[in-house]
Every structure is written in structure tokens, then in C-alpha cells.
Amino acid sequence: MDRMIHFKIKRQDGPNSPPYWEEFKMPYAPQHNCISALMYLREHPVNIKGQRVAPVVWESNCMEEVCGACTMLVNGVPRQACAALVDELEQPIRLEPLTKFPVIRDLLVDRQKMFDGLIQVKAWVPLDGSQDIHLHAPRISPVEQSLRYIFSRCMTCGCCMEVCPQYHDGSPFVGPAPLGQVALHNAHPTGGFFKADRLHAIMGPGGITDCGNAQNCVKVCPKDIPLTEAIGALGRQTTVQWLRDLLM
Amino acid sequence: MAKQSVIVVGGGLGGLWAALRLAEAGVSVDLFSLFPVKRSHSCCAQGGINAVLDIKGQHDSVEQHITDTIKGGDYLADQPPIKTMCEEAPGLIRTYDRMGVTFSRTPEGIMDQRLFGGVKNKRTCFAGATTGAQLLYSIDEQIRFHEAEGRVRKFEFWEFLSLVLDEQGVCRGLVALNLRSMKVEAFRADAVILATGGAGLIWGRSTMSTNCTGAAASRVYQQGAKFANGEFTQFHPTAMKGHDKLRLMSEACRGEGGRIWVPRKAGDTRAGRDIPEDERFYFLEEWYPTYGNTVPRDVASRAIVRATRHMGLGVRGQEIVYLDLTHKPREFLKNRLGGILEMYETFAGVDPYTNPMEVFPSMHYTMGGLWVSYEKDGHTGGMVRAHPRNHATSIPGLYACGECDFGYHGANRLGANSLLSASFSGRVAGDAVAAYIKSLKSATEKTPQGVFDAERRRQEEFNQAILARTGGENASTLHRQLGELMSEHVFVERDNAGLDKALAGIAELKERAKNIALDDQSGWANQLLPWARQVQDMLVLSEVMTKCARLRDECRGSHYKAEFELKQPAGKFAGDPEYEEYTAKWKANNEKWLKHSIATHTPAGPQVEYWPIEASVMAPEKPRDYR
To answer: What is d(CA B466, CA B421) in angstroms, rounded to the nearest whole number?
Structure first.
């Protein structure tokens, strides 16, 4: 038999339907990734039993690991499926939806609460309007720039949230990704003017003290964002902020 | 009058800038997007954004930026908007800087600039090699602030289906599909801004994201909006090959010193890094000594096709050339281009620090798009600020900005001008719409509900007809075949016989598309239904692009037909009689062809007419010459 690519995909017809596994085989071609394979299966949606079925539902966009859309579990590991090359994966390749977010259908999940987290921690640099004020931001050293750049690569994909033991349905914890964004914005020369607001946003329940220091987040971040370092530093800053609040 | 509201469709740089300006003006904004706006295709832009800061002692000037942009586009773009864009670019960059964009810095802590194609000065601001993502994130954050304040409502995972036009043909809102519940709903708005990006998916595979189908632009075109310069699409010279996507390797690679070459010996089987220096053919440097590897993209793509298809010198006999950075220090490359070199390594499985990268031209950008107007300032020669005519389409109340409009780039876009035009045009469109809705004589709240219900029903019936069909055509198959057709006949080099074949092929695909049936009848998160509609709409737009290409018998920017090429006399320059003769011929050709092609939808296909361009800033006196 010709060489095939074998997929085992966890499917779910809707938010309240039971999940089930379905297997697919497709002809091998070099340089396939999991999304290009799903595209092939969209055109040829025949499962391993030879039944023509509804194609798998998934989310993707950039196909180059910068938009974060296609995050799912690939052989149990949360990552961008577009950058998961078939040639480097053990088969059958297992595709599952992220488990920390509500499943919409098949591999498509609802990550809205990550974006809500960004509002909660006020992840922006406040501006007095977007008009040109004929001034740049204050000077930023190349060293500071490269530190901030690492954090600004976060694409809100959800890998770190997926592996965080403290981040789940029953917990108010905001999760590692928004905390990284606090570090990013507090380190900006004018964003730092509002450091206290962001620190206050992560001082209460669901904030920084909910981090259990499992250190899983840094291991799966596709952009190598040093989340645990940020969380450590924020922990110290919130303590200082707490003392400062007492004296106010 | 009740509080006015505006709908923005699309949340890349253009849409978010428009939404931001409106929110700041106190207008409520409903922002529609197929996905969370942070994932928009703007995040794929790599190399940078142009603005004259003149920090490298090169005496760069705004005038030079204007000149480079006009000539880069082979004079086809209207010039007043270009003038204002280039003048306002430094201010726009300062705002981005204030928003916290992590621009790369000089040792003094100011924004660094690098070289890009089609220019001689370092004019491109950048944030590593993920500039688009960094810009997008910063404005996404600003919008999130306005969302928290209740000024912006997001409708993510909604697909725009059609405009709601009142009896006078004024746009009063839109009909959209909820991509989860599959419900079709009509929404009221005092104006709609379309910022839905390019149409790379028409070529099947391109450097674009999988949602860049051009369907939204096609839908408003089918409702009467004019589509301009459809034949002008940019083929980026350096993209990686792939099943699903042709991944971009930024022009910044060449701006930072990357060299394009092929082995001198046809069919050389050695690995690129084992081929000695004197057996490498650096054809861009040889053919264009002045600009070398940083000639504009249309020039570079044609040269690559010449070296591979015509001279047979492609790597291993294939349609591949080398993009070589291996002579540059690793640390330098990591700092300046790390993001994309990582991507190359991930997808090619080869280390680009020690091996030349393998690339080929790919569909990359649609210069053409929805026709939009502007109000010229008779005094400055630029655009009038905050004028309701700026970025207005031919449908009253509908505006367009970003890649889905046709402005700024003419027949070819310069590298790093797209992040600029997306941001700038979004800002202009936002300001224009704020002015437009103030001037509205009758508010949309007065438009009868029946107008909205009728359009919603029309869309529902359309969907039901597709869902009810069984055993028909597969949308993905049609899409793949469309891509093959476009990639073969509507590519870097075109000829009329091929374009006729493409038109015949598209007509056949359009017929078959009437019979699309779905493998999924689910009423929940059904992705095949919107996909089937997108494929149908791509076919309509592909016909516009191909027909305009068929009709334009000349070479201009990205549009090249060998049969009609005015050859630059080799070794001759301005002042030489042969060159002057060439210039005279070029001017005579401009008389006929230096015009916008304007397509109007009819049931029988696009009707094309030609409108004059406005060359009030810089008259087309000198042909482009990058030698």
C-alpha cells in the first residue's frame, strides 16, 4: 500500500455534544503540516471506515505560526498545528481541541476569556488620543527594547493557559499570558506611569498569587516568552505596591 | 438625532485605525471580523513601515518618499493621497511609538531604520522581523481600551455577507452570518467601512493568510461598488514553496544585505553552500548594478522568472533561486531578521544561517481594489483632511481602506509601504466617516425595517439553496482549480492567449460553482457554507482581475506582457538618442494606457472602462529605471 498519513481526531458536534474519535488516512506527501492535511481532508472527507463525513472544523489563518489561531493539542502537546510538520510527528497523529476553553465544534474552541483577561489587566499604553503630538515616546535603550520585544510577541494562542494547573473552569486565575502583558506595558516608559493600576488588577483573587509556580507555561510557549521570570518580578512588585498602598 | 453608529468590517491595521479614530470622535463602532482581530493578516507583515526620519545622514526627504512611491507604482496611482500619506508618515510612526510598539533601536535609543527595495535611503522602521504583528498588537490594545469603555463593540466570528442599501442606494448597514449559530442578521449603521484586506487566495496558494479571499470586496462589487486596477497584483520575489501557503521571506532579507543567485551551471546538483563564489550568478546585481538586490519587487520577480524559466538556471533545474544571508554574522541576523529565519527553519527544516534559502515569486498583494475617492486640497496638492469624500467608494455610505482599496500603490507597491498605507488609510477613512455621518440628512434609524428584513431574507435564501443541494461540486476542488488557472496564466508574465484560456476556465468554474453542494449540513459552526460562498465570490473577482489583465495591452509595474514590452535600450541612458526615442515611445504609450481600469459588475460579467489618473504632484516625464 502507498505511504499514508494517519490522523486520529477528537471530534465534537457542538458545545454540549459528547466527544468522539474519528480516524482518517490520506496519501503521504512531503512537507505537509497538520493544517495543510486538514485542508486536504476538507476536500476529501472520508474516514478510515470509508464513510464520507462532515469535514473536521478548525481555526487557522496565517499558516506561519504568528497569528495563534490554529492552536490545538498535537499528539498531546499544545502548539500551532500549522507549524506541526507531519514528517516530524509520530503517527497516528492525534489532534484534540484545547481543554481549558469551551469547545465550539471539533478542534474549534472559544478563547474569549483570554482576551477578557487582557482588558482585566489593562494591557495597553494609555494615550491622550491617537493624533500626532509631534513627539516620539521617550528614548528606549536597545536592551530594554529587546526585553519588551520578547513579551510583545505573545499572540494570545493559549498554549501557556492550557498547561497551567491553576488555570481552569473553577478558578478565577487570569493565567500566565495576561501577566506577561502586564510586564510588557509596565516596562514602557509612559505605560509605566500606570504601573500601579495594572498591579492592582492582579493583586486580588484570580491575580498573581494564584500562580502555583508549576513552570509549565514557559516550556510550551511557542515564542519562548519568559513568563515565569515575569511572574516572579510581578510578585515582588505587587508586594511593594501593597506596602505602598498601606502607607498612602 | 440619536447617537450615530458605524460598522467597520475587518480588524487588521486599516479597520482598527478607522475604528480608533471613530471611537475617539465619540461615535459608537461595531467591529465585525471573521476571527479575533488580533489574528488579522496584518500580523504577517515582516520587514517594516516606511517613514522619512532621516537619521542615517543620507538626507532623506519626504519629497523623495513621494517620488519613490509614485515611480515604484509606475505612475498609476493618484498622487494627492500619496503626497499626504508620505507627509504624515513620520507623525503616524510617532503615534505608534507612543502606543508602545517595540521598534528596533539605535544605540542612542531612537528608532532604527533599514533599507528596503525601490529606494536608495534607509527609510524603513522595524520591530525585528515581526513589524506587522507589533503594529497590529499596539492598535489592538488601544481598541481594547475603547472596548472596555463601551465605545467599541466587537462582533468576532461574524462574516459580512452583503450591504443593506436603501431606495436611494445609500448604504444603511449590512447583513452578516454568525459563524457559530449560522444565524443571518441585519445590522443598522450610518456608514460602513470595509477593511477586509487582499485576495491572495484567488491564486490558491499565496503569501496571504487563509482568510484573505477578497470575498467581502467581491460582494460589495456585486452590489454596485466599482473595482479598480484589478489586473495589478504583486508577486513577491522571495517566498518559500509549500502545499498550503507560499511563506514570505521578507524583502528585509535583501535590505539587510541578502543576495539572490543561481548556479551558473544549469542543473548543478551540489548543495547551495558548496557552490564556490565564482560559479554563482548574482543576476540582480549584474543586471541592475545601481539597485542590485533591492530593485522593486516587480523587477525582481521578472528577473527571477527570466533566470529560471527562460535561462534554465533554476536551482536543481526547478523554479527556485537562492536568497543568501550566510555571509552575514549570526548575531546581526538574529537581531534583525530572527523571527522569519526561525520560520524558515521550522518549515524548510534547513538552517538559513548556514544555507542559502530556496525561494520563488508568489502572489503577495493586491494593488487593485475597491475604487475610492479623495478630496484634493488645491492649496497643498494633497488631500483635504477629514473630508467625507476621502476613501468613499462609489456606493454612498460605504468606505474602504487598507489592502481592499485601490489607492496609493498604482501598478506596483514598494516594500514597507503597505503597513503605512493600511494604517494611514484607516485613519483617513475613520476621520472621513466621522465627517460623513455628521452631514447625513436622514439618519439610518429612519430607514424602514423592511429594507433590512428583505436583504436578510435574500441572504438566508441563498444559504438555504446551497445547504439543500446534494451530490454537487466540491468548493475546495473548484478553489484548487481556480488557483492552478491563475498561477499558470495570471502570474508574473502574461500573454493574451493564456489570459483567454484563464477567462474560459473561470467561466466554466463559475458554471460549476452554481452546483456546489456541501459535505456538511449542520446548522452549527458549519465552515463549508461560508467557504462555498467565498469560493463563488473569488470566482467573480478573479474574472475582474483576469479580464482587466486581458484588456491592458502594455507593460506597467506588476503587469507584464512580453508582446507589448517597450525595451529599454541596453547601455543607453537619458541624453542618449536611443534612450530619448524610448522615452518618447513610453510617453505615447502613457497617453493610451496611463489610466485606471474601472470594472462595474453586470450579470454578463465585468464591464471595464478607463478613468484618468491624477498626476498633479509629479508628471510622468521619466520612465522607471533601476539599472
So the answer is: 38
Cis peptide before A92 (omega within 30 of 0): yes
**Amino acid code (one letter) for A105:** R
- B1 pLDDT higher than 60: no
Q: Which A-chain residues 51-110 have CB contacts (< 8 A) with chain B?
A: 52-55, 57, 59-69, 82-83, 85, 87, 104-105, 108
**pLDDT for residue A2:** 83
CB atoms within 10 A of CB A85: 17
Domains and their CATH numbers in chain A: 4-109 (3.10.20.30), 112-247 (1.10.1060.10)
Asked if residue A97 lies in contact with residue A12, where contact means CB atoms within 8 angstroms, the answer is yes
pLDDT, one tens digit per residue, over A67-120 is 999 999 999 999 999 999 999 999 999 999 999 999 999 999 999 999 999 999
* Phi–psi pair at B209, nearest 5 degrees: -70, 160
Report the candidate in A72, A181, A140 with the shortest Cα–Cα distance to residue B137: A181
**How far apart (Å, rounded) are the C-alpha atoms in residues B137 and A66?**
12
Q: Is A118 exposed, middle or buried (0-12, 13-18, 19+ CB in 10 A)?
A: buried
State the nearest Cα–Cα gap between A191 and chain B, in angstroms: 8
**A129–B38 CB contact, under 8 Å:** no
Collapsing DSSP to helix, strand or coil, B191 comes out as: strand
Domain range for B310 is 237-364
Residue B62 lies in a domain: no
Q: How many residues does chain A have?
A: 248
C-alpha cell at B48: 517594516
A152 by DSSP, 3-state: which? helix
- Residue B442 — pLDDT band, cuts 50, 70, 90? confident
Of A63, A108, A153, the CB nearest to B525: A108
| ipTM of the complex as predicted | 0.98
Residues β-bridged to residue B359:
B321
Of B35, B97, B145, the CB nearest to A124: B145
Domain presence at residue B415: no
Kindly report the CATH number assigned to the domain that includes residue B294.
3.90.700.10
Can B297 be counted among the known catalytic residues?
yes
Listed in sequence order, the residues at least 6 apart from B108 whose beta carbon sits closer than 8 Å to its beta carbon are A139
Nearest to A158 by CA among A175, A173, A183, A180: A175
Cβ of B244 and A115 within 8 Å? no
- Does residue B261 lie in a domain region? yes
> Which chain A residue shows the shortest CA-CA distance from B150?
A119
Alpha-carbon span B200 to B207, nearest angstrom: 7
